[in-house]
């Protein structure tokens, strides 16, 4: 059964900001969510790369993580000022108090919660993950889970994503939560 139902239309009243660790599925789920509810999709990492004129690994290598985080904060703030959309953020974005405050003021945060085993399976050996370009990458990921999950738990909505679970199920869970929280309204189509 497809995620979207052509007899329904949705209205989003603020930006849905997907948060979670790398490998949680923010970009994949975000694209599918945006399509299902008929709104735009934005990936903050893509926007950061466009603004900087270089890839995220290049930004980390050339200028360091703090420079990247400062640029990330500016980009997220700018994106939240735009029309409501689905916004996938990088894993560290929600850690910044300024970003959490901006998201709370202009959007709704949705934590896509995945366990360590699922995350590791999805990210191991894949390029473009500067924090995991180390010999002890799995331990680094475990440390990020321990450090970041208590902060991600501050999100307005939490949905689970597990190994083998179809992304469509995660999308349906997010839609149900957005409807329940009044962020998304649904209009039945005419037959």
Overall pLDDT score: 90
Low-confidence stretches: 1-7
With strands numbered from the N-terminus, the spatial order across the biggest sheet is 3-4-2-5-6
CATH architecture annotation name: 3-Layer(aba) Sandwich
SSE string: EEHEHHHEHEHHEHE
CATH class type: Alpha Beta
Helical content class: 40-55%
The total beta strand count reads 7
> From the helix content, strand content and strand pairing, which structural class follows?
alpha/beta
Shape call = globular
The first-to-last residue Cα distance is: 20 Å
Q: What radius of gyration results from the CA coordinates?
A: 17 Å
Name of the CATH superfamily:
P-loop containing nucleotide triphosphate hydrolases
Give the helix tally: 8
How many domains make up the 3D coordinates? 1
Query: DSSP strand (E) fraction?
Result: 15-25%
Sheet having the most strands: 5 strands, parallel
Descriptive notes:
The chain is of the alpha/beta class. It has one domain: P-loop containing nucleotide triphosphate hydrolases (Rossmann fold), CATH 3.40.50. Helix content is 49%, strand content 17%. The chain is built from 8 helices and 7 strands; from the N terminus they run ββαβαααβαβααβαβ. It has helices spanning 26-37, 44-52, 56-63, 65-80, 97-106, 116-123, 137-152, 167-180; strands at residues 8-12, 15-19, 41-43, 86-88, 107-113, 157-160, 184-188. A 5-stranded parallel β-sheet has the order 3-4-2-5-6, with helices on both faces. Strands 1-7 form a two-stranded antiparallel sheet. Helix 2 crosses helix 4 (65-80). It is globular and about 50 Å long.
